[in-house]
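Good morning C.,

I know you're traveling, so I'll keep this short. The sequence:
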Amino acid sequence: MTAARVGLPKPKLTFVPSSADVASDYIRTLVFTGVLRGGNKVPIEEIAQVLNISRQPVREALIELSHDGLVQTDGRRGTFVADFGPSTIRDHYELYGLLQSFAVRRVTQDHDPNVLAALHAIEAEARSTVDVAEVTRLATEFTRVINRSADNTRLRLVIKTMTRFTPGEYYLNNIPDALKRSRTGLRAQLRAIEAGDPDAAAAVSLKTWHTTGEELIKHLRSTGVFPDQPPATTRTATTRTATTRTTNRS
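The tokens, ready to paste straight into the viewer:
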């Protein structure tokens, strides 16, 4: 009797994550969920035990996280979570947006039909799936195609060091309408590149990454990782009161 052939699905991972990759993603999750907060010492031994790995890959992960500004080492005292607030998110995405817009501008100027075809295929595939991991992979591949096609080795290396910031599919899993936002962003960038206007394409890229940062900040405030901002009226009233007191003292 011949066994029926089973059609196996293609794996979604394009690479097998190393122990350091697993540790990096885990520590990022601890920071972005507020389990570890600014000033907390990173428990290397405990993390290694939880992940069932040695301490060395955890230390390797911390080196990567230090480059992202998420942790900092304080001499022999150990490694601590760096100040983690809205400015951390905003600065990262504003800077990443500037770098990415440079690459988008170059690709728009070159207007290579093969690059446009590759971007078309990725955008169409992202539009046809609701799988969060797959959309995350496709969005990453979209930017990777742009960065490779910009043909600037130095730029590509700098962007690569900033690509991994949030853990895994954190953005798509937590931001309202994230799948729709991601697809809309890909489509907007593709249209701008196809239009052949480098300035407009760069502006779309900047806006996309700025919005990503602001949506993350909003989410982290809603979950209590970041404290809520005091109402503008309260700040104004406080300022007026302080001004009045100063004037009265004068």
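Safe travels,
E.
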